[in-house]
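can u do me a favor
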């Protein structure tokens, strides 16, 4: 299944990754930024649209976190991120084209009963780590040993 929309339960993912969970205790803004940077390539490869939803005191967006192909939302104080995610799934015309990233069992049950697919936070972050280690080599002509510059994208 190729999803149209990836919805990430932000704090759920942050708490599932040791490095990010520790950082969350000292610098919440930096922890959120690192999550966005760690996830952006994998998320874009998985779906053309990605939304990360965080619990927040005020609803809205944080433009310092927004990346290309990403939307970052904070739930209003009277609603949880889970509630926002559930509403997004239920209101979408094709919920079966949504992939929700969460390890919250109740959230998993709710969004999957609405038709969305679910991937655990650990599985998603493992995929992000694997993608970050991948090097996309250029084609080297047969018989030629690759040089350091062969690994850089054209135009650099």
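np, heres the sequence
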């Amino acid at each position: 299944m190729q999803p149209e929309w990836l919805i990430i339960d932000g704090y759920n993912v942050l708490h599932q990754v040791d490095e990010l969970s520790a950082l969350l205790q000292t610098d919440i803004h930096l922890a959120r930024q690192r999550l966005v940077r760690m996830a952006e390539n994998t998320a874009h490869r998985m779906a053309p649209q990605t939304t990360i939803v965080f619990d927040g005191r005020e609803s809205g967006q944080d433009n310092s976190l927004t990346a290309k192909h990403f939307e970052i939302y904070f739930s209003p104080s009277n609603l949880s991120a889970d509630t926002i995610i559930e509403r997004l799934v239920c209101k979408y015309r094709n919920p079966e084209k949504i992939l929700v990233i969460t390890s919250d069992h109740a959230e998993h049950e709710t969004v999957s009963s609405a038709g969305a697919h679910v991937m655990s936070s650990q599985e998603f972050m493992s995929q992000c780590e694997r993608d970050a280690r991948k090097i996309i080599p250029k084609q080297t002509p047969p018989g030629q040993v690759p040089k350091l510059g062969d690994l850089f994208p054209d135009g650099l």
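The longest helix spans residues 28-46. hope that helps!!
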